[in-house]
């Protein structure tokens, strides 16, 4: 069923949501750069009152992402963290959220440093089933105590690309009356649709693959039903972390080319992963597109590709600083999912906010490199990796 639904997604990327402008015939949704709207008469308006509550450009984007994810309602926020913050605001003092044990550092930080002040608790859980014969049942179910109201999953997770069986996790959560929230940033709806797998809420840092050009900051959320949608819309309007019209326009434009970009990202990522796997300077490659990867079979079953993200760990004989500083084409930078290849060291960059003892426990070491593989020529990408690795080898 998943593959059948995916056949026409390339068309939906271009024409989903609100397609063009019915009033003028413009093929693109206009940028409604306005804060307020003229009302017809007292108590009667056109459907728009104030742009924090609703804006036609943002509405087009919100309808588009809802359609792409197969959900009831979509919401656009000023950043991915604004989207996560709004979702976490659904819960109250004394509630607990279970989170994947290698989660994005910003998600951990907002729970640990902000929401903890208001009595919202969190706990790490291994959603991959490591060490229990591939079953995730015990790891999740044993922690689903009364205070737990949500299970927040990243799959593949950042930065070790671990894969969670979303359908199995959502089924367990549903039986306990717990919401399943899936961060779908690394996959996008082009490759994975968590609501079809049982998720209640899907979120994106749309800054990444959905925008795709490293030129905007945005967050998106989709609810599976209208009831949750109404609750999240109330929070969005009340707290005001909305995406502006121009950025909404840019994001719609980026989504139009998502399919062709991700096809190229994946082609290049697999090529780079296979090359890195054979290099003596690389101890391990984390990429669910490799047959030997622990999440390979689950990823094949629940998604339409492994994505464009991978991580790898350098061997002891190779200096990680020399390698990173020796890159020329590949750029050292935060973020991911843009057309250009970006690389980072999670332990000192994206996951620095996670305490060192937790980082070590889940194998986020200084030797771990996260790689967002771009759409440049794949041979040029590998040539840059080769020359940087050659320069990073320590003299024996």
Structure characterization notes:
The longest helix is centred in the last third of the chain and has 21 residues. The protein starts with a helix and ends with a helix. With 396 residues, the protein is of the alpha/beta class. The chain folds into two domains: 255 residues, Aspartate Aminotransferase, domain 2 (3-Layer(aba) Sandwich), CATH 3.40.640; 134 residues, Aspartate Aminotransferase, domain 1. The strands form two sheets. It has a seven-stranded mixed beta sheet, with helices on both faces. Strands 8-9-12-11-10 form a five-stranded mixed beta sheet, covered by helices on one side. Strand 4, helix 7 and strand 5 form a beta-alpha-beta unit. It has 14 helices and twelve strands. The radius of gyration is 21 Å and the shape is globular. Helix 3 packs parallel to helix 9 and helix 12 crosses helix 14.
CATH topology of the largest domain: Aspartate Aminotransferase, domain 2
Q: Bin the strand percentage.
A: 5-15%
- State the secondary-structure class: alpha/beta
Spatial ordering of strands, largest sheet: 1-7-6-5-4-2-3
CATH architectural category of the largest domain? 3-Layer(aba) Sandwich
Q: What composes the largest sheet?
A: 7 strands, mixed
Count of DSSP strands:
12
The top-level CATH class of the largest domain is Alpha Beta
Q: Determine the CATH superfamily of the largest domain.
A: Type I PLP-dependent aspartate aminotransferase-like (Major domain)
Q: What is the count of helical runs?
A: 14
Mean pLDDT: 93
Distance between the termini: 55 Å
Can you tell me the residue ranges where pLDDT is under 50 for at least 5 consecutive residues? 1-7
């Amino acid at each position: 069923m998943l593959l059948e639904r995916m056949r026409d997604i390339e068309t939906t990327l271009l024409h989903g949501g609100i397609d063009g402008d019915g009033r003028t015939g413009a093929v693109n949704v206009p940028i409604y750069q306005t804060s307020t709207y003229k009302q017809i008469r007292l108590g009667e308006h056109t459907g728009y009152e104030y742009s924090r509550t609703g804006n036609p450009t943002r509405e087009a984007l919100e309808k588009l992402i809802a359609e792409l994810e197969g959900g009831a309602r979509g919401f656009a926020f000023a950043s991915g963290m604004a989207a996560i913050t709004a979702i976490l605001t659904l819960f109250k003092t004394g509630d607990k959220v279970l989170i994947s044990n290698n989660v994005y550092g910003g998600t951990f930080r907002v729970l640990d440093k902000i929401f903890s002040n208001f009595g919202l608790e969190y706990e790490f859980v291994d959603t991959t089933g490591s060490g229990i014969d591939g079953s995730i049942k015990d790891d999740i179910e044993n922690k689903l105590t009364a205070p737990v109201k949500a299970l927040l999953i990243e799959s593949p997770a950042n930065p070790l690309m671990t894969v969670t069986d979303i359908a199995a996790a959502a089924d367990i959560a549903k039986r306990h009356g717990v919401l399943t929230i899936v961060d779908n940033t690394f996959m996008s709806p082009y490759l994975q649709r968590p609501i079809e797998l049982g998720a209640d809420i899907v979120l994106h840092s749309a800054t990444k693959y959905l925008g795709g050009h490293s030129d905007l900051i945005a967050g998106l959320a989709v609810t599976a039903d209208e009831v949750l949608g109404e609750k999240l819309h109330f929070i969005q309007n009340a707290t005001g972390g909305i995406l502006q019209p121009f950025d909404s326009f840019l994001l719609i434009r980026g989504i139009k080319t998502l399919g062709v970009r991700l096809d190229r990202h994946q082609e290049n990522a697999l090529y780079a992963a296979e090359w890195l796997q054979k290099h003596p300077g690389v101890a391990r490659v984390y990429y669910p597109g490799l047959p030997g990867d622990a999440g390979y079979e689950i990823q094949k079953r629940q998604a339409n590709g492994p994505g464009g993200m991978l991580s790898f760990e350098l061997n002891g004989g190779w200096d990680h600083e020399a390698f990173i500083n020796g890159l020329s084409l590949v750029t050292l930078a935060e973020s991911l999912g843009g057309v250009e290849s970006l690389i980072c060291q999670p332990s000192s960059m994206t996951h620095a906010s996670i305490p060192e003892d937790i980082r070590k426990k889940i194998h986020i070491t200084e030797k771990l490199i996260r790689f967002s593989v771009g759409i440049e020529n794949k041979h040029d990408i590998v040539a840059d990796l080769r020359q940087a690795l050659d320069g990073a080898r320590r003299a024996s």
